[in-house]
TrEMBL record:
GO terms for molecular function: peroxiredoxin activity. Transmembrane segments: none annotated. This is Carboxymuconolactone decarboxylase-like domain-containing protein. Residues 1-21 are annotated as: Disordered. It comes from Chloropicon roscoffensis. InterPro entries: AhpD-like (IPR029032), CMD-like (IPR003779). PANTHER family: 4-CARBOXYMUCONOLACTONE DECARBOXYLASE FAMILY PROTEIN (AFU_ORTHOLOGUE AFUA_6G11590), CARBOXYMUCONOLACTONE DECARBOXYLASE-LIKE DOMAIN-CONTAINING PROTEIN. It comes from the Eukaryota. Pfam families: CMD (PF02627). Residues 7-18 have a biased composition (Basic and acidic residues). Residues 77-146 form the Carboxymuconolactone decarboxylase-like domain. Gene3D superfamilies: AhpD-like.
Length: 203
């Protein structure tokens, strides 16, 4: 089943192919990268230091814009750390859900960052290529298949999944795993929205 429906291209009004949306989303000038460190408030600086101290990648991606509203940035970065590193899903399984989310929202920056993470976690290039164009990858193990189908349906149906899809995910992951998977898709949707709205580059 398709991962996502093709979105309309922002500038041309024509449908993009799965191979084009990543390129189309890169190279645009950023709208807002967040407050300059020298101009941060005490609250912003405290959250900035917390993020910088807890992430090997530093303060990049959505964290810059979020720092404009530190009451958003602080819990968002905590939830992100949990979704990324502290669930029952393996890193490879989490990256599958994240790439599905990035592809659905055509977030080129989210895709670029997590394509590299997925490769490091052991995801095959054919699997990544299939997700990128909205196809179901071949050869998924039962847990990954349940993750793929649940996340794809969740993204494409305004947050609703059929009973059969839910039950397959519950059997594969358990109720806690379904909660975690739902949270991962939701959190990385927030990330994708932030990256897309503010045109945040991957580096």
């Amino acid at each position: 089943r398709p991962v996502r429906s093709m979105a309309r291209a922002e500038r041309s009004g024509e449908e993009r192919s799965g191979a084009d949306w990543v390129a189309a989303g890169t190279g645009l000038p950023p709208r807002y990268l967040g407050p300059e460190p020298s101009a941060m408030s005490v609250e912003q600086r405290a959250v900035y230091n917390e993020i910088a101290g807890s992430r090997t990648t530093g303060v990049r991606g959505p964290f810059g814009p979020w720092l404009a509203a530190p009451a958003i940035a602080q819990p968002a970065q905590t939830l992100g750390r949990v979704c990324r590193y502290e669930t029952s899903l393996s890193l490879l399984e989490s990256e599958l859900a994240i790439l599905l989310t990035a592809a659905h929202h055509e977030s080129a920056t989210e895709w670029t960052i997590h394509e590299a993470e997925a490769l490091r976690a052991g995801m095959s290039e054919p699997t990544i290529a299939a997700v990128r164009v909205g196809a179901r990858p071949d050869g998924l193990d039962p847990r990954s298949a349940a993750i793929h189908d649940f996340a794809s349906e969740l993204l494409c149906t305004s947050g609703r999944v059929a009973d059969g899809t839910y039950e397959a995910a519950r059997r594969a992951l358990g109720e806690p795993g379904v909660v975690e998977l739902t949270a991962i898709v939701g959190y990385y949707t927030l990330v994708a929205y932030t990256l897309n709205v503010f045109r945040i580059p991957a580096s």
